[in-house]
Amino acid sequence: MYYQTHSFESFDGCHLNVRESGEGPLLLLIHGGGTDADFWKDAGELFSQWFHVISYDRRCHVRSECRPVRGKKMLDAHAEDAAALIRAFSEPEDEGKATIIAHSMGGFIGMRLCELHPEQVRKILFHEPVWNFYRSFCQKNPLHAFHPLTFKETRGRPATEEELANIKPDNEALFKYDLLWLLTYRTPLDSLATMPVLFGVGEQSKGTTIYNETIRTAGLLNAPLLWYPGTHNSAFALPHEFCYLSTAALL
Question: Which residues contact 81 (CB under 8 A, 6 or more apart)?
Fold first, then answer.
């Protein structure tokens, strides 16, 4: 085990399962829907060569406590969890800030963090973040919106039995606690325009909604855009490629 595991008490007393590894600038990894900290397990080990890495199971996911709040406020709770982790694990040289990578549904959490606590964000990379879902109805082929759920990356390692077993409770948490804010939150372009943001897409996602929307958002913000090998889950399936490209961009 290359990481230390902590039970971290967040801002409202909710205990989060946290994994910590490495030394250097603080890097916070926020996972998306239908998964947990295992998504970052291999990439986190690689990132720890250059960063002080913190990954965690978001509240109500597998190893973390489930202390839900109602409706859209759940998104604020996720953002405040991220802020609390940055405060707790940052070293004096971090100046209370963290570099952040937010994947998929975690993108909205990273965006909300930028709105609520911009002073804590040194730089943030959004890899194929979820989008304003009302725009999906404008697509010629709505099935493209489900690309992250259907595309299988064959070049990476298979998920372990434990990781596969966690998918069901992770998805249950998504539908029970996160669906409302996922469907109703709007990308805060005005807030992000003042932040050091980057965006990433998988080269095999080309032509899908999440690919097109990521490129569109990056263009509206005039933000750097990175092309990764693989697809939506390249951080899990191709961790070496994901880590090295991300590290080069972030540092």
Answer: 10, 11, 14, 16, 56, 58, 59
Q: Strand 52-56 to strand 4-9: parallel, antiparallel, or no bridges (unpaired)?
A: unpaired
Say if 77 falls within a structural domain. yes
Asked if residue 164 is part of any domain, the answer here is: yes
Measured CA to CA, the distance from residue 35 to residue 157 in angstroms comes to 16
How would you classify residue 34: left for phi > 0, otherwise alpha for psi between -120 and 50, otherwise beta? Answer: left
**pTM for the structure as a whole:** 0.94
Q: Domain range holding 11?
A: 4-241
Q: Which of 201, 250, 192 is nearest to 226 (CA)?
A: 201
pLDDT in tens, the chain (251 residues): 589 999 999 999 999 999 999 999 999 999 999 999 999 999 999 999 999 999 999 999 999 999 988 878 999 999 999 999 999 999 999 999 999 999 999 999 999 999 999 999 999 999 999 998 877 666 556 555 566 656 677 788 888 999 989 999 999 999 999 999 999 999 999 999 999 999 999 999 898 889 999 999 999 999 999 999 999 999 999 999 999 999 999 99
Asked if residue 248 belongs to a domain, the reply is: no
Facing residues of 98 across strands? 121
89 is a domain residue = yes
Q: Which residues pair with 199 in a beta bridge?
A: 126, 225
The structural domain count of the chain equals 1
